[in-house]
Automatic annotation (TrEMBL):
InterPro entries assigned to the protein according to its UniProt record, in alphabetical order: DegT/StrS_aminotransferase (IPR000653), PyrdxlP-dep_Trfase (IPR015424), PyrdxlP-dep_Trfase_major (IPR015421), PyrdxlP-dep_Trfase_small (IPR015422)
Annotated source species: Chlorobium ferrooxidans DSM 13031
Pfam families according to UniProt: DegT_DnrJ_EryC1
Annotated GO biological process: polysaccharide biosynthetic process
Domain of life, source organism: Bacteria
Keywords for this protein: Aminotransferase, Pyridoxal phosphate, Transferase
Residues found modified as N6-(pyridoxal phosphate)lysine: 190
Active-site residue numbers: 190 (proton acceptor)
Name of the protein in its database record: DegT/DnrJ/EryC1/StrS aminotransferase
Family in the record: Belongs to the DegT/DnrJ/EryC1 family.
GO molecular function: pyridoxal phosphate binding; transaminase activity
Lineage: Bacteria, Pseudomonadati, Chlorobiota, Chlorobiia, Chlorobiales
């Protein structure tokens, strides 16, 4: 059984994809070719964003807005410790300091009520709070109504980390469209993934769009040999754009299939484990189907039982960021973010993809319920 089944998806898009790839080979426009321009246009329309800037990875999609906005030494950027390392890593790469804010136990996403505490911590450390990076964890958009209000009250601009949330929505607004700027990842395991690394950035701000396009190509000005600022090599190649264009054509259908799988899991597993809660007005992209066991030991038992039956599972994330060795210099300690620490000790994820068969879901649930 596959944790994420890219083979079935590949068979579905194989013919039109190979045609696109052959055209690229014939044109020899391998970097920033017409497929990239087409992809940016289609992604912007999908998200209902004025601008889309493609880039070489989800990490660069988070880093580029920080560089474009001049985030650097002495600045604090708030985010959560219950996420993949890249979210905080880009803050450090920009020269700023991450300040962590705990999550809501119901959604795994940042708790808006605790943002003020993070601002106070930053000020106490002599830092200037500048920005907030909420994460749309496991596919569920964060509570942007409350987040945008609290961010405005502290004069923080928002960089939405929609690396897992792309395809999700909150009250009709698509993930990637919240805050000043949104970022997503096209890593192959994501709901919309390419066949390598890729990412995209969304904004309605014309000036930020101009700066992002400069940062993407070494801080270029009128051409790539006229450099106005420090940037990166963040371009998306044409092959990855071609893959994404074909996958985007079937994306909504795949999201519907993911929802059916999630509904099946939740109906069967309610009461055995804590299943995900999707608040009213939200739609998850179901990047992962993550549940909570009653304890760390029960998690181990359940995962071992599944493994014995050839069923893969994963833990996202076993060590919260404030306890990672890389951030020892921030002087956080165990107990500082109790919800994130509790989640890390009990969470695990089940196979989730659009091609998971009903009988496979049934088999997974039978093992867990035994």
């Amino acid at each position: 059984m596959q944790f994420i089944d890219l083979l079935s998806q590949k068979d579905r898009i194989r013919t039109p994809l190979l045609q696109r790839l052959e055209r690229i080979v014939d044109s020899c426009q391998f970097i920033m070719g017409p497929e990239v321009t087409e992809l940016e246009s289609r992604l912007a329309a999908y998200v209902c964003s004025r601008h889309c800037v493609s880039c070489s990875s989800g990490t660069d999609a988070l880093l580029m807005p920080l560089l474009a906005k001049g985030i650097g030494p002495g600045d604090a950027v708030l985010t959560t410790p219950f996420t993949f390392f890249a979210t905080a890593e880009v803050i450090s790469l920009a020269g700023a300091t991450p300040v962590f804010v705990d999550v809501c136990p119901e959604t795994f996403n940042i708790n808006p009520e605790l943002v003020g505490r993070g601002v106070e911590e930053a000020l106490a450390k002599g830092l200037k709070p500048k920005a907030l990076i909420p994460i749309d964890l496991f596919g569920l958009p964060a509570d942007y109504e409350r987040i945008e209000a609290v961010a405005a009250s502290f004069n923080l601009w928002i960089l939405e980390d929609a690396a897992q949330g792309f395809g999700g929505s909150f009250r009709g607004r698509k993930a990637g469209s919240f805050g000043l700027v949104g970022a997503t990842s096209f890593f192959p395991a994501k709901p919309l993934g390419c066949y390598g690394d890729g990412g995209a950035i969304f904004t309605d701000d014309d000036e930020l769009d101009r700066l992002l396009r400069s940062v993407r190509i070494h801080g270029s000005g009128v051409d790539k040999y006229n450099n106005e600022r420090i940037g990166i090599n963040g371009r998306l190649d044409s092959f990855q754009a071609a893959v994404l264009l074909e996958k985007l054509a079937i994306f909504d259908d795949e999201l519907d299939a993911r929802q059916r799988v999630a509904d099946s899991y939740s109906r069967r597993l309610e009461g055995k484990v804590t299943v995900p809660r999707i608040p009213e007005g939200y739609r998850s992209a179901w990047a992962q189907y993550s549940v909570l066991a009653a304890s760390s030991s029960e998690r181990d038992q359940l995962m071992q039982a599944l493994q014995k039956e050839g069923i893969p599972t994963m833990i996202y994330y076993k060590i919260p960021l404030h306890l990672q060795k890389a951030y020892a210099s921030l002087n956080y300690k165990e107990g500082d973010f109790p919800v994130s620490e509790d989640m890390s000790s009990r969470v695990f994820s089940l196979p989730m993809h659009p091609y998971l068969k009903d009988e496979e879901v049934e088999r997974i649930c039978e093992v867990l319920l035994a």
